[in-house]
Design brief:
There is one protein chain. This protein has 145 residues and is an alpha/beta fold. The chain contains two helices and eight strands; from the N terminus they run E-E-E-H-E-E-E-H-E-E. It has helices at 39-51, 99-116, and strands at residues 2-15, 18-23, 26-32, 55-56, 62-64, 72-77, 120-122, 129-144. Strands 1, 2, 3, 6, 7 and 8 form a six-stranded mixed β-sheet that branches.
Amino acid sequence: MKGLIQRVKHARVEVTGETVGAIDHGILLLLGVEASDSRETADKLLHKVLHYRVFSDELGKMNLNVQQAEGGLLVVSQFTLVADTAKGLRPSFSRGASPQQAEELYDYFLEQAQARLPSVAGGQFAADMQVSLCNDGPVTFLLEA
């Protein structure tokens, strides 16, 4: 499981022109699910996302996590994160989870996040989504469980 996190001033995701999820300051997480992933993998990645220190403290150092910064979390499914791009000029998605497995783990991840953080929103699984954000910093990290 891979998660691309971006520290944002605000972010939202739309489907057919309608906002389905939005947060103010916090983390936008693009979440990719691989065939070898499980609920345990999702739990490990969620722990990293919630505890990764990407917010500035009073001295301007990245010492605070999203919970300490009282930020939100917007989770958007992104199967292209698990693409194999090592060879050729076309990505391979052979490592990706089946749509059924990916949706189950995405939903599980979102439920677990909502149980741990007050402000959590999500995209719409397998939809054509438009994601808008204001990357703060910019600060972007690729996390793996």
